[in-house]
Amino acid sequence: MDIPYTVTARPDTGLYNGKLGIWLFLASEVMLFGALFSSYLLLRVGAEVWPRGETILNIPMAFLNTVILISSSVTMVLAWASLKMNQFQKARWCLIGTFLLASGFLVVKFFEYSEKFAHGLAPKTNTFLAIYFTLTGLHGLHVVGGMVVMAFLFGPGAKMWRVAPERYTNRVEITGLYWHFVDLVWIFLFPVLYLL
Amino acid sequence: MTEHGSHDVGIYYKVFGALLVFTVITVAVNRVHLAIPLAVTVALIIAVTKGSLVASFFMHLISESNQIYRVLVLTAIFFFFLMFLPLLGLFSTPAGTEHRSPLTPATHATAEGHH
Description:
The complex is a heterodimer. Chain A is mostly helical. Chain A has six helices and no strands. Chain A has helices at residues 17-46, 59-84, 88-118, 127-154, 160-163, 165-195. Chain A is elongated and about 60 Å long. By secondary structure, chain B is mostly helical. Chain B folds into two domains: 7-64; 66-115, no CATH class. Chain B is built from five helices and no strands. Chain B has helices spanning 10-31, 36-58, 66-84, 88-91, 106-113. Chain B is flat and about 65 Å long. Chain B starts with 9 loop residues before the first helix and ends with a helix. The interface between A and B is large, with 55 and 52 residues.
């Protein structure tokens, strides 16, 4: 049985099913991260003292990661645009580039975490570090999730381009929507945790 | 094959440049060491601007179906309430769990806790 509306828009929603699905998922993700940001506010307002992130965290590393994630969003959207222009090889390289940039993000994060642990700074140390590790750890898991999907799309999943190119293009598009959301969350995490 | 002809990718590079510039501005403003309320306001304005650029152009929200706008408006309403939930703690706090404002001296806050 074929899954309906993977390419054409459903008449009542005006969208192909995957796209509506990813947006509903992203709405739930907004609430997930929103709950944690809300917890951060509650903890910060209730604390007698709250450290400025810059006194504990490494701003140059976070700045580098911001640039890496923004760049990966560009390569991701270029992958989709290339498929729209029927340039499969270019799209595949863009997906690989996005994957490598995501790996770079995690490598920088690994060094950042290692530096903290080496100085005895762990989630149990204080409330600030607890919420820092929770928020950035959850965000890091989202990066890993995106990388798994990208690896499938430029790896074994790329076969679909030959038999159902429009469906493959749509898969890249909804992966991109997810990936841009991961970028979006980092855009808020960076100032909230590191700078304020 | 999906042949849609040329696709204007120039806008993505422009947005990329703008995002980089805003990121540098965020860090530069931080070096000025503004008072916390002003620093929070400036940082959030820049973050919202960057987020809007990503959502509008990379996620194509600038030309999306009404169905998605409806989903997002509903999400925004719930998100708004979620962000203001912590404020409820200022009006109703169970005895023994009250927290002190960072601006209130500890001795006063303890005394108020018994009221």
